[in-house]
């Protein structure tokens, strides 16, 4: 049930043991990355609060500034269609750097110089959000994912069924057509004790954004300027991000029908309720315990008990 993660005894941090390649990912892009002291890595499975957390981190770094173009400053390093030039440009950044990954721990180069924020969300909510993300993606993004040289494995295509159909494929295929959901959660949960790792839950961001921002700032050793904290809080609200979605969505939202506001969709949970049958709910929750153990499964469902 649990991975036997290897550790480097000098630093007590995980050691990379494999590469992952698919229509989205090329994990080798981390292999030569030159970390700096204080680098920040925001990690998730997908559609679990990545962009929201990047926004929070950006606002803490830039002290509540307007107009921070998060996707440009904080690229998804292992996204294989992101131009290498965008990754190389990180060398020119003079501010504290913050990056994005969707890799499980054992496929990621893990550095003791960096701080890692892992954001999780109930799998049913993540799957519903992924359906919206992919059903509204334009042909251009599918063409890029499927025709850019270096593709390993099957191609990816727009969902043709309902959100419920997508969920069934996601559940039966363990995150399909993306990457393993349970494995991703499990590997990050296993290293939650490390001093440079912080686990954050989507539910907690929604329940207590003020407290969550302050906790993230403390973890990152960023002293909040109370004079600008109201601006930080406003800029991290869902309404603000929706209204300024072109500064949050990759490529300004161009790859999605309806633009950036489609990428920043609803930010709501529980859309699966009343659609999944009682048997499907039981099936999901039993599998979560089987895959993750009771403690992790409870945290993943509720955001409580970390």
| End-to-end C-alpha gap | 20 Å
CATH class division: Alpha Beta
- From the alpha-carbon coordinates, what is the Rg to the nearest angstrom? 18 Å
Query: Under the CATH scheme, which architecture would be assigned?
Result: 3-Layer(aba) Sandwich
Q: In total, how many domains does the architecture comprise?
A: 1
Gross geometry: globular
Strand content: 5-15%
Query: How many beta strands in the DSSP annotation?
Result: 6
Largest sheet entry = 4 strands, parallel
Secondary structure category: alpha/beta
Give me the CATH fold name: Rossmann fold
Percent in helix: 25-40%
Average per-residue pLDDT, rounded, comes to 92
Q: What is the name of the CATH superfamily? A: P-loop containing nucleotide triphosphate hydrolases
Keywords: Transferase
Protein name: Sulfotransferase domain-containing protein
InterPro entries: P-loop_NTPase (IPR027417), Sulfotransferase_dom (IPR000863)
GO molecular function, one term: sulfotransferase activity
Structure explained in plain terms:
The protein is of the alpha/beta class and 306 residues long. The chain has a single domain, classed as P-loop containing nucleotide triphosphate hydrolases (Rossmann fold). Helices cover 40% and strands 8% of the residues. The protein contains 14 helices and six strands. A four-stranded parallel beta sheet has the order 4-3-5-6, with helices on both faces. It has a two-stranded antiparallel sheet with strand order 1-2. A hairpin with a 4-residue loop joins strand 1 and strand 2 (13-14). Mean pLDDT is 92; it is low at 1-5.
